[in-house]
Amino acid sequence: MKTNNSKNTSNSKSTRGPGAPPKLIKFPRGAFTIAEVVELNPHVCELSVRNRVNTGLASKTLIRLAENLETEQVGRPSFRFMTKAASAASRSARKSARTRKATPAPVTATTVTVADLSPAPEATQVLEQAVV
């Protein structure tokens, strides 16, 4: 019988199998396509980005938007995605903008007296000199 001589200590790495560890992928803020994610992460191949997007859709950390990106090239339109956190942030921003529009600004009354409308004495003297 084989015995496993490796010690499982707290500072050892997990044994998930052979190969390189998974690379971190950055997602843009707001709506994005897979092509934009590939441009943002040049150190990761496109297949890894597609797999990460599919995993995000399955785990519901990414949302596929209803509108697609129309391209001028031949082929089907590109799907657009958004992170769930960005979607919630934009939704709350739209909601707060709607509530700000619904409340009217308070109206302040300004009073103007007749004394404020009368011309200054210096101005009348200048006008009289210009007429003469």
Summed up, what is this model?
The protein is mainly alpha-helical. The protein has helices spanning 34-40, 46-58, 84-102, 114-117, 121-131, and strands at residues 62-64, 81-83. It is built from 5 helices and 2 strands, in the order H-H-E-E-H-H-H.
Structure characteristics:
Arc Repressor Mutant, subunit A, mainly alpha, 41% helix, 132 residues
What is the second-level CATH architecture of one domain? Orthogonal Bundle
Strand composition percent = under 5%
- If helices are DSSP runs of H or I spanning 4 or more residues, what is the number of helices? 5
- What's the N-to-C terminus distance? 125 Å
Neighbour order of strands in the largest sheet:
1-2
**What is the CATH class designation of one domain?**
Mainly Alpha
Low-confidence stretches are: none
Fraction in helix: 40-55%
Counted beta strands: 2
- Radius of gyration, in Å, reads 33 Å
Structure overview:
6% of the residues are buried. A two-stranded antiparallel ribbon has the order 1-2. α1 (34-40) packs across α2 (46-58). It has a domain at 26-101: Orthogonal Bundle (Arc Repressor Mutant, subunit A). The termini are far apart. The protein has helices at residues 34-40, 46-58, 84-102, 114-117, 121-131, and strands at 62-64, 81-83. It is mainly alpha-helical and 132 residues long.
Outline the secondary-structure elements.
Elements (H helix, E strand, L loop, with lengths): L33 H7 L5 H13 L3 E3 L16 E3 H19 L11 H4 L3 H11 L1
Antiparallel strand pairs: 1-2
Helix pairs in contact: 1-2
